Amino acid sequence: MELSGGDSEGAPKRAKLSSGDACGGEDCLSALPDDVLVLILLRLDTTVAARTSVLSRRWRRVWALLPKLCFPLAPEPHRFRDTLDTHEVPLRDLLVGAGGATPESLAIWLPAAARRVSGDLTLLTFDPGKDAGEEEGEAAQRGAFELPCFEKATSISLILGFHGLAIAMPPTGVFARLTGIYLSCVRFHGPCALGDAMSSPRCPCLQRLTVDDSRGLGDLTINSVSLLQMELRNLRGLWQVTVVAPALTELTVIYCFRNDDTQPVANISAPQLVSLEWKDCMAHLRWLGTSFYLVYGQDGLSHNHSCLTLLQRFEAIETLFLTLAYMREIENYQYLMEDMMVLPDITFLCLDVIANGHAFGASSFHALRLCTGIRRLTLLFAAPTGLEAQTVCPSGCICHQPAEWETEGLSLNHLEEVEIRHLRGSEHEVAFVKRLFSWATVLKQIKVTFYYSIPEIKAKELYQMFWSFSRPGMRMTFYIYRKFSKVVYVPED
């Protein structure tokens, strides 16, 4: 089967290949085993290797055994499909340049390719008669093709050139071995299911995802435990991105949110993120959460440096979620809060304290001193961590220093609402709450949720303490857990 046109030199070439003078006129070359012939054809480019199919019936199937096929100009679709279906030998690499491709022509041979490709697939489409800048309405008239599920491929690269081709992701199937996908100049068709197809349930090994210079991708939601690198560049029409990727280390978002008619939304959870390149609209960013900040540690701690670097990128933010964490053993470490010299101008601070039994007043005071304009404050007292959780720090622990917070004044004269969650009533918690009431002189609303296993007697004691701080016009509400349900708490007389 010949997949590309012959030429006037074909006959002489065939004579030389099959003359076999040294073999008494017999075709000795064709008598060689297939694996030997494949080694010979590997020295030729794919188009030339395919032309050997005119030599004899034997040669028609040999070239299709090549582990790598590269067609700068795609063969006739039906013949190409039949050739791919001739063998079940895994195809390590397939590169096809499909000039003038239509959705119908691609639908003919792509399913066969999906059954064969076990390595890299690269598809480039172009239309010599069209300008890449053609109007989208005109281009869309040529329709869409559905990408088959490449169950064995490890890498997929699609560069579609905007020449009237739209792509739909497969609604079912698992890309079981896919580690990387690159999509460029792609027009997505309909409610795009790219996020569904590339998330862990259907793409369990994905490590690299790049979408560049594409259209029609309005909402992208990725939930992947394996994803390491993600790049989104120049995606016209994108308005929402949701990423849950616990292993993600590199994220790039450039010129994607440029639609003035909608407010873009980005929800990203990537605790291992090392590199963030964001060159895009953030005018509506309202909530920022950082990784935990270690109060005590080695000087120059890179983890803290990353946290501070992110915070310094913002002059103002409506809501900041900040976590201050203490290790169990801190006596041989340095106090690191002095490295935190500035916070964004914020309205609502959510301060999560992981104290592990240590006094946390100094660190929390330092954070509040950097954002005295807050109007709302939520304090989260996290449970001690580890199997041998520490609820009280050792005698003489350095966590009590510096002690200025116990006497120094602080004016939180905009703070009107305070919420405290998981209050146990430890000595350190009570000491800090008392100081907080002395700093916040215009408080109007207090909400307190007690720790789920707090004894009734302790809850009542804390309830009475809070009411002793009450001022005219201040409203207080308390909650406690009863049989794992949170209910309003009012102590019995």
Automatic annotation (TrEMBL):
One Pfam family per UniProt: F-box
Domain of life of the native organism: Eukaryota
Listed CDD domains: F-box_AtFBL13-like
Renumbered residue ranges of the record's region Disordered: 1-20
InterPro entries in alphabetical order: F-box-like_dom_sf, F-box_AtFBL13-like, F-box_dom, FBL15-like
Domain (F-box): residue spans on this chain: 29-67
The protein's name: F-box domain-containing protein
Species annotation: Setaria italica
